[in-house]
Specification:
Elements (H helix, E strand, L loop, with lengths): L15 E5 L5 H16 L3 E7 L4 H11 L7 E4 L9 H15 L3 E5 H10 L8 E5 L12 H14 L4 E4 L2 H10 L6 E4 L19 E6 L8 H13 L6 E4 L5 H10 L6 E4 L4 H5 L2 E6 L8 H8 L4 E3 L5 H5 L12 H13 L2 H18 L2 H20 L24
Parallel strand pairs: 1-2, 1-4, 2-3, 4-5, 5-6, 6-7, 8-9, 8-11, 9-10, 11-12
């Protein structure tokens, strides 16, 4: 993970913040690590509570690197992905840790972390509960049983939420449509990235034509990507694909590679830092069926990497004025056409197009802005508490501004 600049001025009042989430993996984990560093640099006392059973060696190394900045350290307890009787023990562990450090901010991330943070008993009126959804339960297909159950749970938990800090306008709109909770203070705080991530990536020798980085899960659109690759190879385009990551559908994807006759065309590698992987591919492909505001897209766009992605979740917010270049999900033919367009366009045109996207991302997705906007959200929640629980009236921000002050669906 990249170094985090200490660009936020020291606060008038220092807070005692616990970030609570389940799995120390993926974009959610990166978001918490960056935010914890920024808050510690701003003079706050920060700690983490997360799952003890996931993340492996990479998570352990990242948490060890972060530990010197954390006044309240890292507490790891077993947490299940789905609702489970063991949630009671995990919630008690969160409550004990909050009491021990005298937390005045419980910031839950993701559905499970958000539930623990908001169900934790309050320490009087001096503690606020913040929630950043990160997609997750909001991405279930509307009308399905799981969607109805999770949205009902979000509706109940919204009553115990002092401030929502949505990472994308997409999730904010989903919340408004399926949960409501208009009285709750809510802001949009886009994920942010650091200056070093805008440095160009030097191409590696003999790169793969396509690269995918992320979970090996069907919902990431990988079966569609493999179908598109098979179509292109059948047309005489002998392209190669590098797939980097791990996940529950790895075996099924390997079977599909074999069944499509792509064994010589597709290589699988375990999860690893993204920038060296970008150097090994001519085009990064993100074929997801659902997303919130994925860091892999931000990171690739920042580096000027040629990129093909689907028009889902918050990805159009990243692409901004170039969102019409995005591909419909679940459409192998459309994905094939988009990939061939990038491969076949003149090199100078391609460089200029993705340099423009990089410049746009630099302007709108600053890590310092993310940290400042989260602290601003906390401050608004504390002010609302002082006004006897009446939520602050927050003006709407312009679309895609990524700033605080936006209510869901504004």
């Amino acid at each position: 993970m990249p170094p985090v600049p200490a660009a936020i001025a020291h606060p008038v009042e220092s807070h005692r913040i616990l970030h609570i989430f389940r799995a120390p993996v993926g974009g959610l984990f990166r978001h918490v690590v960056d935010l914890a560093r920024l808050q510690a640099a701003a003079g706050h006392r920060v700690g983490i509570v997360c799952d003890a059973t996931t993340g492996g060696d990479r998570a352990q190394a990242a948490l060890a690197e972060l530990a010197p900045a954390l006044a309240f350290g890292v507490t790891r307890v077993p947490m299940r992905r789905n609702p489970h009787p063991s949630d009671t023990a995990a919630l008690l562990a969160v409550a004990r840790r909050a009491e021990a450090v005298g937390a005045d901010v419980l910031h839950g991330h993701g559905a499970k972390g958000g539930a623990y943070a908001r169900l934790c008993p309050a320490r009087g009126e001096s503690m606020i509960r913040a929630y950043t959804p990160h997609g997750g339960s909001y991405n279930y297909r509307p009308g399905t049983l799981m969607h109805r159950l999770y949205m009902a749970a979000e509706g109940l938990l919204a009553r115990r939420t002092d401030v929502f800090l949505f990472e994308s306008e997409y999730v904010a709109r989903r919340h408004q449509a399926f949960v409501g909770a208009e009285a709750t203070l809510a802001r949009i705080v886009h994920n942010g990235i650091g200056a070093a991530e805008f440095e160009p990536v030097e191409p590696a020798p003999d790169p793969f034509d396509l690269v995918y980085v992320g979970e090996l899960r069907d919902a990431k659109g990988l079966p569609v990507l493999l179908e598109a690759l098979a179509q292109m190879r059948a047309e005489g385009r002998h392209l190669r694909l590098l797939m980097v990551g791990s996940g529950p559908d790895a075996g099924r994807l390997a079977d599909q590679v074999r069944d499509l006759g792509l064994t010589e065309a597709v290589a699988f590698e375990p999860a690893q830092p993204i920038r060296p992987i970008l150097a090994r591919g001519r085009i990064m492909v993100v074929p997801s069926f659902a997303e919130s505001l994925p860091y892999v897209v931000l990171e690739a766009a920042a580096a000027g990497q040629p990129l093909v992605a689907t028009n889902v979740g918050g990805i159009p917010e990243i692409f901004g004025a170039a969102a019409d270049e995005l591909v419909p999900p679940r459409d192998a033919a459309a994905l094939r056409r988009a990939i061939l367009r990038v491969l076949d366009e003149p090199a100078e045109t391609r460089r200029a197009r993705f340099a423009a996207l990089s410049a746009s991302v630099r302007q709108r997705f600053s890590m310092e802005r993310m940290g400042a906007d989260v602290l601003s959200g906390y401050a608004a929640a504390f002010r609302a508490r002082l006004r006897e629980g009446v939520p602050e009236s927050v003006p709407a921000a312009p679309a895609l501004a990524g700033s605080s002050g936006t209510r869901p669906g504004a």
